[in-house]
Amino acid sequence: MINWQHLLMAAPLVLAICTALGGALSKRSVGTNLATIAAALGFVATAGIIVVRGIQVGHLPLGSGLDFCLWLCAVLFLFNILLLRRLQLPAVSVLLSLMVGILGAWLLSQNQTVTPMAPALRSPWLSVHVLSAMFSYSVLTVSFVLSAVIAARPMDSTTIKLDEWAYRLVLLGLPLLTVMLVTGSVWAEYAWGSFWSWDWKEVWALVTWLVYALYLHLRVSGWRNKKAAVLNILGFAVVVFTFFGVSYLLPGLHSYL
């Protein structure tokens, strides 16, 4: 019997692959159009899954790592559409599609059953905390993609443009990380009776904030292009560890995420 939940959840992965294939041909207008259509379909499909899960639970679906990654995929599909039209650089579209594809493959490995929200998650701060985390991770993912392309390209006017974009995205991402930390502390006091519990997820979220604060400080101090790109790539590695590594290797109070 066909598992329709798994079939539906495969949409982000399949459409990310299609976007990557179109992006690889984006030097031709037909490739850009195909990639844009695939990314648009990816957004619609992922947003549809979010809506279905929201209807099932009766509120915004934000209570699990699976829900978080669905929102992340949807936003990254939108970013891909924007970058396809503004930059028309195959490497950017392909790499960003690869990031969505990895998330899509991870989604397929998860239990897709919709369950009641854990008691600790039932707080009015939940939406602000999780959505600020999701949007910050989205813009930092795109910034990482741009920096990865910078690190692999020779220096030219396009590289300088990508560096400016990467910088501006971190300028947006750091305040969102700040909102995530502040609302998370308020939520922690509500849920566990303490604003800070030295939980591994809290600690690494703070480390993430410090790395990107350092990036902005050094960028303003004169770091540009490849030097800044390397630090930005390191920052994204910390983001990945904070979300996935901590969850698997250092479980704690946030283990349900």
Automatic annotation (TrEMBL):
A Pfam family (short name) is Cytochrom_C_asm
Record keywords: Secreted included? no
Keywords of the record: Cytochrome c-type biogenesis, Membrane, Transmembrane, Transmembrane helix
**What is the membrane topology listed in the Swiss-Prot or TrEMBL record?**
Multi-pass membrane protein
MF (Gene Ontology): heme binding
Outline the extent of the Cytochrome c assembly protein domain.
70-254
Location relative to the cell: Membrane
List residues traversing the bilayer.
6-25, 37-56, 62-82, 89-108, 128-153, 165-188, 200-218, 230-250
Listed GO cellular component terms?
Answer: plasma membrane
Q: Which GO terms describe its biological process?
A: cytochrome complex assembly
InterPro entries recorded for this chain? Cyt_c_assembly, Cyt_c_biogenesis_CcsA/CcmC
- State the name under which the record lists this protein: Cytochrome c-type biogenesis protein CcsB
Organism equals Peptococcus niger
